[in-house]
Write a structure and sequence with these properties.
Blueprint (H helix, E strand, L loop, with lengths): L8 E2 L2 H12 L3 E7 L5 H6 L3 E8 L2 H10 L6 E5 L14 E5 L5 H9 L7 E7 H8 L9 H9 E9 L4 E2 L6 E8 L7 H11 L7 H9 L1 H4 L15 H11 L1
Helix pairs in contact: 4-6
The structure holds S-adenosylmethionine.
């Protein structure tokens, strides 16, 4: 079993049903599933959608899926790396998956970079990342990924899932998270995210320390210069960014 590909297969029906329901509700026109494995979640998604694109890196598993679901015209199995795949190629869709944990953050960032046709993602991920996504300012888990995700999406914890729900069991707990893209997005998102990333560059240091190299006295003059990025609320980063540019 190549566990290097994060192959921990879900075996608990209640979790699979919860994930599929959180992603699709009763019915959603199109779904993209990342890492279908042997099709455990796929089976729960199929009755809830008209079109399912399942993207699997492991050639053997992709072949297995094609064989298992051969008669299912709604299912399109694609062999490939999610990080190298254009997820917008099929048009508007819900994105879901029991993720390969070694690339959870890049997958989330990939979803964040999509457009308004991609409203919802429901991902099962390691608990530590689920906590980072839902963290509040001032907490240990609050960081760049929290702010980047919450600027773009509303984040909701759907379920905590223990290792026993998988085979083989992973070493850590897992969390299912739903991301719902906000209607209002910051207009200058990519520059704003670069700025947020700089603010968190050295997490224990003040904004003055992290920003001085790029913004000099403009950073020193900020009323918040003595605070750390983890003390700034998600939507206050936008105001901070605007002020540092207007000076
Ligand atoms: N969905 C299945 C389940 O719940 O039983 C399997 C989930 S398993 C945690 C992650 C799956 O992602 C594996 O099937 C693995 O082969 C696949 N995978 C790993 N890296 C991938 C990548 N870069 N692109 C697409 N799939 C990948």
């Amino acid at each position: 079993m190549p566990q290097r590909l994060g192959q921990h297969f879900l075996i608990r029906d209640s979790v699979l049903e919860r994930l599929a329901g959180a992603a699709c509700g009763k019915l959603t026109p199109r779904v993209i599933e990342i890492g279908p494995g042997r099709g455990a979640l796929t089976r729960h998604l199929l009755p809830r959608t008209d079109e399912l694109h399942a993207l699997e890196l492991d050639a053997k598993l992709a072949a297995y899926l094609r064989e298992q679901f051969g008669a299912e015209s709604k299912l399109h199995v694609q062999e490939g790396d999610v990080l190298a795949t254009d997820l917008s190629q099929w048009g508007s869709a819900v994105i879901t998956g029991n993720l390969p944990y070694y690339i959870t953050s890049p997958i989330i960032e990939k979803f964040l970079a999509l457009d308004a046709r991609f409203q919802t993602a429901v991902f099962l991920m390691q608990w530590e990342v689920a906590q980072r996504l839902t963290a509040a300012p001032g907490s240990r888990d609050y960081g760049y990924l929290t702010v980047a995700t919450q600027l773009v999406c509303e984040v909701e914890l759907v379920a905590k899932v223990p290792p026993e729900a998988f085979r083989p069991p992973p070493k850590v707990d897992s969390g299912a998270v739903r991301l719902s893209r906000r209607t209002e997005q910051p207009s200058n998102l990519s520059e704003l995210l670069d700025f947020v990333s700089l603010c968190f560059r050295q997490k224990r240091k003040t904004l003055r320390n992290n920003l001085h190299g790029a913004y000099g006295e403009r950073a020193d003059a900020l009323p918040e210069a003595g605070l750390r990025a983890e003390q700034i609320a998600v939507h206050d980063f936008e105001a901070l960014y605007r002020r540092i540019y207007q000076r």
